[in-house]
Amino acid sequence: xxxxxxxxxxxxxxxxxxxxxxxxxxxxxxxxxxxxxxxxxxxxxxxxxxxxxxxxxxxxxxxxxxxxxxxxxxxxxxxxxxxxxxxxxxxxxxxxxxxxxxxxxxxxxxxxxxxxxxxxxxxxxxxxxxxxxxxxxxxxxxxxxxxxxxxxxxxxxxxxxxxxxxxxxxxxxxxxxxxxxxxxxxxxxxxxxxxxxxxxxxxxxxxxxxxxxxxxxxx
Length: 219
Known about the structure:
Layout: H1 2-13, E1 19-21, H2 28-31, H3 33-37, H4 49-74, E2 79-85, E3 88-91, H5 96-118, H6 123-131, H7 142-148, E4 153-157, E5 161-164, E6 173-175, E7 180-182, H8 198-212, E8 216-218
Helix pairs in contact: 1-4, 4-7
């Protein structure tokens, strides 16, 4: 169904649109599976619902790769990109434990764009699957399709930044868009709980470009 949809819109808009995104905030299916993927836990009795969500995301990765293939065939000079929720974290302190925890958090954020840029699952995500007994069912050819048709650019949303501490005991926590995180004492907080951080946008752009060396879109 998704392939048919992609072919239809590419044929319809091939003379007007050159830049395409496949799935908005592809990683968000893990945080809010119903609003992003239409997944309802009660519909999967007896199953590991986290595994259900990651399985659905695998289908999105494959569908995105196929969309890239189709779009390039129909619109030869087109570019297709992924889109992630760019959550930016700082260590709460210079304690090595806080820095390490921040590094772990950021690697988990990048896992989804890593998959679409490099065309394969990063070791961090594969290790998470193994450690949490998550088994992804792949169809023949899935890995080849993902590897052969990676995205041309990386796009992302950016709302705020947050802090990470190995031990959050006694620290202030502030709500954000869809997450709770340690409050940054150096940033103002909106009435909604967001810590607006324009410098964090610059940091995000530099980090993303250093990691992927591909064009970036703030979307």
